[in-house]
Specification:
The protein is of the alpha/beta class. The protein has helices at about 1-20, 55-65, 105-110, 125-135, 150-160, 165-190, 215-220, 245-250, 260-265, 275-280, 300-310, 320-335, 340-345; strands at about 30-35, 40-45, 50, 115-120, 140-145, 195-200, 205-210, 225, 240, 255, 280-285. Mean pLDDT is about 90; it is low at about 1-25.
């Protein structure tokens, strides 16, 4: 009986909260046009925002962390070394999209954000999805398109939405500078200079993000040849290949997804036949607070371009790597990366 009464009380409170959340334009609202072309009414001054998933969480954290009403997913133990602890205990909502979709609407409504933000690639049903979520929550829901190439535009639009236009301009300018430099280097590379790279993931290193895969964009941005010319698979661990294929591709560089995989590849007898292993050119992908190369496909991939670009073309990526990475973490994560943190991040990565 007590449980039933508590549940009834909770549902009553949620109903009250829903009724108090503005979902249409009012005297204090302004119209925001999102990346799906939808007109979304939002407050003149946005103070509280909520991410619809992990990717939106990263973008909002780097732009306006103090406006987060909550998070989509807990920060991993590794990520917490680089994330201010005052954000660890924020309410958790889960995520709207993906195979792990688990959005807790009750928790989201109870946190009282003024707008829910979805960030990422535009799905075919994006307008319907955002409209449907907005109706369910009875609060504004906005979509911001963000790919590696459109990072500057994504930050600009997010800045317009949240009101953090000056910081958004600073972050966007940083993104544009790095993307333009990578494009310039890529254009100048001769075919003979393009390094053949294999990206190893999974327990045995025989899963990979194939050529043309959305998750393999960093390799393409630095002008590398992704040797895994197989059918791309963006789900799970990517495409599955055989050891025979890896041996036949004989990459010059191997990127490993984890410390365990790095140790296995550099000590295994069969992998020792691969050119990259013979020449000591196996590197572990830095992954804190998020991967430099892949999931989530966030702004950390800018550091992936700098990191991998320097490994493959040190004559063209000439900035000091420690200074570059520390500056990035200061700008995007508001953290002064000390030498111990830097060394931990770059273990087996250079």
């Amino acid at each position: 009986m007590r449980k039933a009464l508590r549940r009834l009380f909770l549902l009553s409170m949620i109903a009250l909260l829903i009724g108090s959340v503005p979902c249409s334009a009012s005297e204090t609202a302004r119209s925001f046009t999102d990346s799906a072309g939808r007109t979304v009414p939002v407050p003149q001054t946005v103070q509280k925002v909520a991410p619809s998933g992990p990717l939106a969480q990263i973008f909002l954290y780097t732009l306006c962390p103090d406006k987060l009403a909550g998070i989509a997913a807990d920060f991993s133990e590794e990520a917490r070394l680089y994330i201010n602890e005052r954000y660890w205990g924020l309410p958790k909502f889960g995520q709207f999209y993906g195979k792990n979709a688990n959005l807790n609407m009750e928790a989201l409504i109870a946190a009282g954000p003024e707008v829910v933000v979805d960030v990422g690639e535009a799905k075919k049903t994006i307008r319907e999805d955002m409209d449907g979520l907005q109706r369910q929550l009875n609060m504004p829901v906005a979509f911001v398109r963000a790919t590696l190439d459109t990072l500057p535009e994504a930050y600009a639009l997010l800045g317009t939405l949240t009101g953090d236009t000056e910081r958004a301009e600073t972050l966007g300018a940083y993104c544009r500078k790095r993307l333009d430099h990578a494009a310039s280097v890529r254009k100048e590379l001769k075919d003979a200079e393009r390094v053949r790279v294999y990206w190893a993931s999974g327990k045995t290193g025989l899963n990979t993000n194939a050529r043309g895969s959305f998750h393999a964009e960093v390799l393409e941005k630095v002008g590398a040849v992704n040797v895994a010319d197989v059918e791309p698979n963006s789900r799970g661990s990517g495409s599955t290949v055989s050891m025979e294929q890896v041996l036949s591709w004989n990459p010059e560089v191997v990127l490993a997804d984890s410390d365990a995989l790095y140790e296995m590849i550099t000590t295994d007898a069969i992998w020792s036949e691969v050119q990259a292993v013979k020449k000591g050119r196996v590197y572990k992908i830095p992954s804190a607070p998020y991967s430099f190369v892949s999931n989530p496909p966030s702004v950390n991939r800018l550091m992936g371009i700098q990191w991998l670009g320097r490994l493959l073309h040190p004559d063209r990526y000439t900035s000091d790597p420690a200074r570059e990475i520390k500056d990035f973490y200061k700008l995007f994560y508001s953290i002064d990366l000390n030498d111990e943190q830097y060394n931990a991040l770059m273990r087996h990565a250079q």
